[in-house]
Amino acid sequence: MTGPEEAIETARERAAQRQARAGDIGDEPAGLEASITAERPSLELLSEWSVIEVDSSDIYSTRRAGAPITALKHLLLRLLGQYHRQLEARQTRFNIALLSHFRDLEERVARLESQAQRPETPSRPAPGD
Questions:
Q1: 12-47 b/e (C-beta count within 10 Å ≥ 16 → b)
Q2: Phi, psi of 45 (to 5 degrees)
Q3: Between 34 and 61, residue with greater pLDDT
Q4: What is the SS3 assignment for the chain?
Q5: Cα distances (angstroms) measured from residue 99 to each of 40, 49, 65, 74, 115
Q6: What is the model's pTM?
Q7: Longest distance between any two alpha carbons in the chain, whole Å
């Protein structure tokens, strides 16, 4: 018989194995870990995060009799597929638009900072002054 603590640990180990098989674990941390460990995520990483992709292999249950619950979750995912795809598409469009806006703001701030750091040339007095 498996206790709740053992079931959670087993589920975490299985998820880690699944990620390792999928090639998600590399030299650099990914996902939430990268946002916590890195001071500032790169634009490439932010672009990757902005696109929402649901992986149906992440659906599982840690309960003792979890197989029927997991099957039910997969059925619900299939029945609500159109709704989820539309929702994911709208959220992805919003995320990409927001990322584009932030990128434009960063470029504008960099341009303004470079202008502020440049020494201003003294203006010449107008002739006859």
A1: eeeeeeebeeeeeeeeeeeeeeeeeeeeeeeeebbe
A2: -65, -40
A3: 61
A4: CCCHHHHHHHHHHHHHHHHHHHCCCCCCCCCHHHHHHCCCCCHHHHHHHHCCCCCHHHCCCCCCCHHHHHHHHHHHHHHCHHHHHHHHHHHHHHHHHHHHHHHHHHHHHHHHHHHHHCCCCCCCCCCCC
A5: 14, 10, 42, 32, 24
A6: 0.53
A7: 99
Residue with tokens 């018989």: 1
Instruction: Retrieve residue 66's tokens.
Output: 């979890």
Q: Among candidates 26, 28, 52, 54, which has minimal Cα distance to 42?
A: 28
Amino acid in the structure at residue 71? A
Confidence (pLDDT) at 96: 92
Q: Which residue has the tokens 């674990």?
A: 25
Could you read off the pLDDT of 45-88 as tens digits, one per residue? Answer: 888 888 888 777 777 788 888 888 888 888 998 899 899 899 99
Structure tokens at 110: 């960099």
Cα separation, 87 vs 54, in Å, equals 11
